C-alpha cells in the first residue's frame, strides 16, 4: 500500500508534466502567427511580390509552373536541338525579333531569355487569355510541328521561344516577365539584375 508521501510525490510529478506539456503547446500555438508573418501575405504576392524559384532539379525538356501576380509562369529547360531550331524559322513568325511584343529589353533576342537553355514565359495566350499547352514533341500537333506551345481554344501557335506564328489569332508573342538569376539554380521572378537583389542573395 502506497504511503501518503508517495501519493503526493506522484501527484506533484503528474502536475509538473501536465503543466510543462500545456505550456509547450501554448508556446507553439502562439508562435504560428509570428512565423507566418515572415512570409509575404497572399495579398502581397497577388500585388506582385517577387517569387523565388529553385530550378536546380529542372531536367532538360521539363516544364515548371509557378504563380506570379496570379498568373502562371512557365520555366522550361530547352534541349540543345530546340535552341538551334530557334535560329532557323523566322519566315514563319509574325514577330521574329519581338519588336511588337512584351518582354524586358535584356531578353530581346532569338531565345527570348537570359540563358538560351532556360525559358521563362507567362503562360497566357495573347489572343483571349487562354492557357496554351506545352507541346515539345516534334509532329505532335501537325506534320510540320517543331515543338512549342499550342492553344487549343482558338488554335494559336507559338514556337519554343514563345514567338507567335503567322496566320493564327494571337497578335503578339507570349509575354516574358521580369526576372533575374540569383545564382545558377535560383530564379527571382518579378525583379531584374538592374534592381537591388542584395537582400535576396545568400
Counted by DSSP, the helix tally is: 3
Give the fraction of residues assigned to helices. 10-25%
- Largest sheet, spatial ordering of strands: 1-9-8
The CATH topology of the largest domain turns out to be Rieske Iron-sulfur Protein
CATH architecture of the largest domain: 3-layer Sandwich
Please outline the major beta sheet. 3 strands, antiparallel
Give the total of domains: 2
For the record, what is the CATH homologous superfamily label of the largest domain? Rieske [2Fe-2S] iron-sulphur domain
Shape: globular
Radius of gyration: 26 Å
Low-confidence stretches: 34-39
Distance between the termini: 64 Å
* DSSP summary, beta strand count: 9
Helix- and strand-based class? alpha+beta
CATH class of the largest domain: Mainly Beta
Topology as a string of helices (H) and strands (E)? HHEEEHEEEEEE
Global mean pLDDT: 82
Instruction: Estimate the strand proportion.
Output: 15-25%
Your description of this structure?
The protein has helices at 4-36, 42-46, 80-85, and strands spanning 51-54, 63-68, 71-77, 118-122, 133-135, 148-150, 157-158, 179-183, 186-189. A hairpin with a 6-residue loop joins strand 6 and strand 7. By secondary structure, it is α+β, with helices and mostly antiparallel strands. A three-stranded antiparallel β-sheet has the order 1-9-8, with no helix packed on it. It has a three-stranded antiparallel β-sheet with strand order 2-3-4, with no helix packed on it. Strands 5-6-7 form a three-stranded antiparallel β-sheet, with no helix packed on it. It folds into two domains: 1-39; 44-189, Rieske Iron-sulfur Protein. The longest helix is centred in the first third of the chain and has 33 residues, at 4-36.
Amino acid at each position: 500500500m502506497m504511503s501518503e508521501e508517495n501519493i503526493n510525490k506522484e501527484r506533484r510529478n503528474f502536475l509538473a508534466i501536465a503543466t510543462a506539456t500545456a505550456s509547450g503547446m501554448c508556446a507553439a500555438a502562439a508562435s504560428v502567427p509570428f512565423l507566418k508573418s515572415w512570409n509575404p501575405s497572399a495579398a502581397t504576392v497577388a500585388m506582385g511580390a517577387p517569387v523565388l524559384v529553385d530550378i536546380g532539379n529542372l531536367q532538360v525538356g521539363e516544364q515548371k509552373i509557378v504563380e506570379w501576380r496570379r498568373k502562371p509562369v512557365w520555366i522550361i529547360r530547352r534541349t540543345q536541338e530546340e535552341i538551334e531550331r530557334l535560329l532557323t524559322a523566322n519566315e514563319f513568325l509574325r514577330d521574329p525579333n519581338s519588336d511588337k511584343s512584351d518582354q524586358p529589353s535584356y531578353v530581346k533576342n532569338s531565345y527570348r531569355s537570359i540563358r538560351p537553355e532556360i525559358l521563362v514565359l507567362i503562360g497566357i495566350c495573347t489572343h483571349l487569355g487562354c492557357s496554351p499547352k506545352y507541346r515539345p514533341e516534334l509532329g505532335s500537333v501537325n506534320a510540320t510541328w517543331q515543338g512549342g506551345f499550342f492553344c487549343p481554344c482558338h488554335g494559336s501557335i507559338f514556337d519554343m521561344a514563345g514567338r507567335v506564328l503567322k496566320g493564327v489569332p494571337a497578335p503578339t508573342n507570349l509575354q516574358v516577365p521580369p526576372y533575374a538569376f540569383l545564382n545558377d539554380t535560383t530564379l527571382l521572378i518579378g525583379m531584374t539584375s538592374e534592381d537591388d537583389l542584395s537582400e535576396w542573395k545568400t
